[in-house]
Design brief:
The complex is a heterodimer of chains A (476) and B (289). Chain A is an alpha/beta fold. Chain A has four domains: 67 residues; 133 residues, no CATH class; 194 residues, 3-Layer(aba) Sandwich (Rossmann fold); 27 residues, no CATH class. Chain A contains 18 helices and ten strands. In chain A, strands 7-6-5-8-9-10 form a six-stranded mixed sheet, with helices on both faces. A two-stranded antiparallel sheet of chain A has the order 1-2. Chain A has a two-stranded antiparallel sheet with strand order 3-4. About 6% of the residues of chain A have low confidence. Chain B has a five-stranded parallel sheet with strand order 2-5-8-1-9, with helices on both faces. Chain B has a two-stranded antiparallel sheet with strand order 3-4. Chain B has a two-stranded antiparallel ribbon with strand order 6-7. The radius of gyration of chain B is 24 Å and the shape is elongated. The longest helix of chain B has 16 residues. In chain B, strand 6 and strand 7 form a beta hairpin. Chain B has three domains: 148 residues, Rossmann fold (3-Layer(aba) Sandwich), CATH 3.40.50; 34 residues, no CATH class; 84 residues. Chain B has 14 helices and nine strands. The chains are: A alpha/beta (476), B alpha/beta (289). At the A-B interface, helix 2, helix 3, helix 9 and helix 11 of A face helix 2, helix 9, strand 9 and helix 11 of B.
Chain lengths: 476, 289
Amino acid sequence: MSLLDRHLAFLQALRDAGLPVALSEGLDAVRAIEALGLHERETLRAAYSATLLTRQSHRPSFDQVFDLYWPAVVGDGYSETKSTTEGGPDGAFRLGLPEDPAHPEHPTPLDDGPQALADFREALATAMALGDPDALAVLAREGVQRFGRIRGRGPGEQRWSAYNVSNRVSPGELVAKALAGIGMSDPDEDPSLRRLVEAQARAFEDLVEAEVRRRAAEVRGPQHVARHTVRQAVEQIDFGSARRADLELMRREVQPLARRLATRLNREQHQRHRGPLDFRRTVRASMSSGGVPLETHHRPRRPGRPDLVVLCDVSGSVAGFAGFTLMLVFALREQFNRVRAFTFVDEVHEVTDRFVPGADPATVLADLAASARHASLWGRTSYGRAFTRFAEQHPDALTPRTNLLVLGDARSNHGDLALPVFRDLVHAARHTWWLNPEHVRNWDTGDSAASEYGRIAAMVECRNLTQLAEFVHDLA
Amino acid sequence: MTSPWFESPADAEKRLGAVGYLADTATATTAYLAGALEKPLLVEGPAGVGKTELAKAVARATGAGLVRLQCYEGLDEARALYEWNYKKQLLRIQAAGDQAWDETHDDIFTDEFLLTRPLLTAIRREEPTVLLIDEVDKTDVEVEGLLLEILSDFQVTIPELGTVEAVRRPLVVLTSNATRELSEAIKRRCLFLHIDYPDSEREREIVLSQVPEVEDELAGQLVEVVSRLRALDLRKSPSIAESVDWARTLVALGTGTLDEAAIAQTLGVVLKHHSDHERALKELKLRTR
């Protein structure tokens, strides 16, 4: 594979990962590399990131793909690295030796016995306590090699597993040990310090995953690995398939997103401040110019901030999605006159008071999850029952100035849909939208009643933060 | 004509360091590329990490003049590009007396009556110039369109005068706090650099270089506390500017070591929100005395 092929394959992999890389940007990258030369990997990374990236949220995907296509080391990477456990007690470590090029697939396996594990964990705890990124990287490489081996499907095929490594090394449990190493006997003595060390543990796990991807790319080619493992940018990740770490990232993204939306909405309101023509004033003003209306006068626009009622399904599968949507809506409180929120499974429960200004989003989300208990009677989602109960209990919630927002996947366990009740609700409200966190192609499959409800109220697909932002923008 | 900018990334790092801006590899490389490829540089990042300072440092390091356009909501062509000095034009017309209109007309649309604003100034300068377009995310979409023409061709068309082309391409630095998404067209024309909070080693160096009076050990403690604060979920994480301010405050108060009492007393320099303040006190296990 020539350098140019590699470059083009790299661009293609970035596009596959969802980064918009234009042709001109690819050309710029080539020019930048020409100007810089290929002496150093980090310079190459800087050249690519400067020319190809357009927003920071794409950076994690970019780094993953870059590491696959321009790996720091090849194979076991012995000749370049020094392990921190060099010269271990039993002398079985073959560190510092170059790999036998004749059998790259069968290097002598490193010792992964209990003694080696104990030594390794010791070294890792020290590295975590010191917060030394280089040591962590070396340890991650060694850890994958030592504890991450699994047998591949084909004969002699070698595979690696990040799960095996974190299972055996379990860096999360090392936090207390690392803290004790820097003279803190009680792990809860200083939460901020503990948080730093925990971040180190997470960093180690990320490094292990990156290392496993690199090894996999050597066996199966970077294209294959990039297609299957590179995570999308956080605003593109489906609510349904988000991992815990992604949820954390999304949670952090909600506030800035809300701020960005709020400024945009504010500005647009400024721009549209001219209302309909004030005929009377225009004619009177035209007197001074002999009856020619040189300047038109307009009525001020009536400031119409809508009320908002949010009804959201908090049954297991869609709870995460509903939480994010609620948080975003509440972050945009200034854009609405009044916001009320209700959660339901088969019973309706008001949660408006959970959203106090300045509250910690994490606690709010946990609270919401807990409130699912109040919202469920038998624990089986029933949209029909929920709508009926809502109409009975809160008949005053919907007025002609209210926008109604329903969040849910419209999966009602084949129960009664109570379509007439829902039609009445929609009729009582000014506008109604239904946000569905499922892909359109899954609507109406199984017990989904998407099109039945969709005929009554506009149903919108909303699977990730981008779609959510677009929707809220249109709403306010 | 030799390029007035940097010769290599290492050169960029060295010369920026010499004028008091400690750049990391990515920043130095991108600053070099901006000069070498003659492309505008879009710098994003949290407030107070030295985005504007980068442009100033590049100007200082290369001996180029700095032209600054501060963006704000409602910025228009007349403020950003050029304007005709109509008062002076009126005077000229009145003074013309019985001169023919054609002559007067030719007279009043000359350089003499042109008020150049930052963008045009930067394009017409013959010396090396760094054009800093600060907080570009604050402008309206129309100004972005205006920038588009200038950033891609470095030329301005004035109907009465004709097209003014750049004698020498200025090095353009745009900064943005990402409160609004810039259009893809602008981003595509620019090199992109995200400056984040620095690692503790670099931050300590920055504090030491900005506040030479502070002692080495104190700077280390300070940077450590700041990095712990950043790990918290705060409304506004402290940035480099705040670290430097903090160091200055501690020096002014004559504090030798950063103990609990000293932190509790001066935390207001670093954290600007009340809720952040309380949270930090709780998390750092400090008691207000």
